[in-house]
Amino acid sequence: MADFSEKNGIAECVVPWGRWWQTVDEVHIEASLDEPVTTKDLAIVIKNNRISLTVKGKVFFQGELCKVIQADESTWTLEDKKLIRILLAKANPGADNLWSALLANT
Question: Matching Pfam families, A to Z (predicted)?
């Protein structure tokens, strides 16, 4: 896990497909794409304990989340056709509830 910075309240982790970081309340995910896409090319599934991101049939990541989220409070956007931003609302926010990884068993 990336060190949690109490100064700015953010812990960031760079991964092959982009990066993710967290605050005490939320988990932010950014997936960078090599080629432009439209929302029709994306399959993003966000559930309370699972997530998956598929682009043009290629799975970027999928699996059980490290901790539970509020799926109905979570969202995603496609920016400039090459950047996917996903915001996950933590079910149990707080500085004592930091995630050690995005996905369980990783």
Answer: CS
SS3 58: strand
Quick: pLDDT tens for 1-59.
444 444 455 668 999 999 999 999 999 999 999 999 999 999 999 999 999 999 999 99
Residue among 40, 54, 92 at smallest CA distance from 70: 92
- Radius of gyration for the chain, computed over Cα atoms and rounded to the nearest angstrom: 13
Q: For the chain, give every domain's residue range.
A: 11-90
CATH class, 11-90 region: mainly beta
The sign one gets for the Cα dihedral 60, 2, 100, 85 is negative
Is residue 2 within 8 A of residue 11, CB to CB? The reply is yes
pTM of the full structure = 0.88
Q: How confident is the model at residue 61 (pLDDT cuts 50, 70, 90)?
A: very high
Amino acid occupying residue 69: I
